[in-house]
Amino acid sequence: MSGVTNPLALDNQLCFPLYAASRAMTAVYRTELDALGLTYPQYLVMLALWERDGRSVGDLCTTLSLDSGTLSPLLKRLESAGLVERRRSADDERRVGITLTDTGRRLRADACEVPLRIAESTGMSREDMETLRDALQRLTRALTAHTHPKEN
Questions:
Q1: Other CB atoms closer than 10 Å to residue 74's CB: what's the count?
Q2: What is the pLDDT of residues 143-152, one digit of tens each?
């Protein structure tokens, strides 16, 4: 940001375009996900389970960067919708496993078109989207490391 005359100008901030892009992206997803009966956070849970079924709540929390207080209500709604089942581990009752139901597995086929439609809505090339995704992942790792330094 060298040469910036007003470091507090909204147009000179990194946070605002990230915030605005996140809101715009979520709005586009909302339109697509309404047909599936999912909210955006529920979709993220389903993506993680479609990638690897039978995850623990703790694993989902880590994968999705959510705390259990946020994830638990999502899982309850997905269970009420008949998409997932929650089961306590027989070995350790503190551990809860999440598995897809047959309905949850079938929903994957309907969801397969969502990423393509989202990509089309961006007007970006695949290469540009991958570059942006990679840059955002690096930014997230750097910010996470800065705010949560590992204990030595």
A1: 19
A2: 989 887 764 4
Identify the sign of the CA torsion 70, 28, 44, 14: negative
How many angstroms separate the Cα of 77 from the Cα of each of 9, 14, 24?
41, 35, 25
Output phi, psi for 26, to 5 deg: -60, -35
State how far the Cα of 33 lies from the Cα of 29, in Å rounded to an integer.
Answer: 6
Give the integer Cα–Cα distance in Å for 123 and 131: 14
The one-letter code for the residue type at 88 is R
Domain 15-112 carries which CATH code? 1.10.10.10
Beta-ladder partners of 84: 100
Q: What are the sequence ranges of the domains in the chain?
A: 15-112
The position carrying tokens 């709540």 is 57
| Angstrom distance (rounded) from CA 93 to CA 83 | 22
pTM: 0.86
